[in-house]
Specification:
Helices cover 31% and strands 15% of the residues. It is an alpha/beta fold.
Length: 325
């Protein structure tokens, strides 16, 4: 038996194309995918709801993005975990250590949301470690001095707050961070919450966890999801090799932007090229990039046809290209 050369995909992946600015753009006026935007008008997405300018994933952050006179956004990016009593709370990391006084409250590091009931988490100050211009404006707030906007909130409350206070309809990218059986339960809970609010058409289900991705495909028929890391790798290989993509279960790529190089400077992989974006749009797949915090990178991706820029600095993104919309 002749075995296939397992190095072939790696060779293709390792020969990244140069980002040719003269390459043609595929215009998207007739795209069926609602997340594919007109050329030069990517969605402005607040990563962790604006982590660079306000305590991340807090009601304060959502409020700033909804009401700022200086910028506007289109999409909120957030992550959720399930608590011990079955609620979904908004949190990027696996613990609150990096953002709150969790270690002080619980007497140890690495306390995870699934270990606590919601009411136990409500005592935390989610602005404890937020730094802005060398200052920590919310450090030391305890008890009744913690504003409600810096406390732990359920996803339900966040979605209802945006609905009640937003000046338009917003999109959401929501990543379930739990894994295994608990990840499946969290995905089911998310699916019910969205269904109760008729939000399936405005939410992207994102996950780095293959078990959660498979659960969406099997149990959540109304959910629109982005590609898993393994699916992104397969997509990139087919793009670089010129192969047909075939049938896929995802509608979006949510991928990092950066040119990854070998130590001597040769490109290994570049996910932000016109080639990749054109290939995705040809197959009615939207392309959204995270976490893009430099104006020059925002402009490059915008010019290459990106459909959304996820950034910790939505004010910078809006100033860079948002006013084109």
């Amino acid at each position: 038996m002749k075995f296939p050369n397992i190095l072939t995909p790696l060779k293709v992946i390792a020969t990244a194309s140069k980002d040719d600015a003269s390459a043609p753009i595929l215009f998207n006026e007739n795209a069926k995918n609602p997340y594919i935007t007109p050329y030069g008008r990517p969605l402005v997405s607040a990563h962790r709801s604006g982590a660079g300018i306000v305590p991340e994933n807090t009601l304060m952050a959502f409020g700033l993005c909804l009401n700022s006179p200086e910028f506007d956004i289109d999409l909120f990016e957030l992550d959720v975990h399930m608590t011990l009593d079955g609620e979904l709370v908004v949190l990027h990391n696996n613990t609150y250590d990096a953002t709150s006084n969790s270690e002080e409250v619980f007497g140890r590091k690495d306390v995870r949301p699934e270990e606590c009931a919601l009411e136990q988490l409500k005592v935390l100050n989610l602005g404890e470690h937020f730094e802005l211009d060398g200052e920590y404006p919310y450090r030391g707030l305890r008890g009744g001095n913690i504003p409600d906007t810096l406390r732990v909130h359920k996803l339900d409350e966040i979605l209802d707050f945006v609905s009640a206070n937003g000046k338009k309809k917003y999109y959401f990218s929501i990543d379930v961070k739990n894994r295994g059986e608990l990840g499946g339960k969290a995905a089911d809970r998310l699916y019910r919450i969205l269904g109760e609010r008729d939000l399936y058409d405005r939410v992207i289900a994102a996950s780095f966890n293959a078990s959660v991705t498979k659960h969406y495909d099997a149990c959540c028929p109304g959910m629109t999801r982005s590609a898993s890391p393994a699916e992104v790798l397969a997509f990139y290989y087919k793009c670089r090799s010129g192969a047909e993509l075939g049938r896929v279960n995802y509608s979006l790529l949510q991928i990092p932007y950066g040119v990854y190089r070998k130590p001597w400077g040769a490109e290994i992989i570049n996910l932000g090229t016109r080639e990749l974006i054109n290939y995705a749009h040809k197959h009615d797949i939207a392309v959204q990039y995270w976490t893009v915090n430099r104006a020059e990178d925002m402009r490059k991706l915008c010019d290459n046809g990106a459909d959304a820029i996820m950034t910790d600095y939505p004010d910078l993104a809006y100033a860079t290209f948002g006013r084109r919309c």
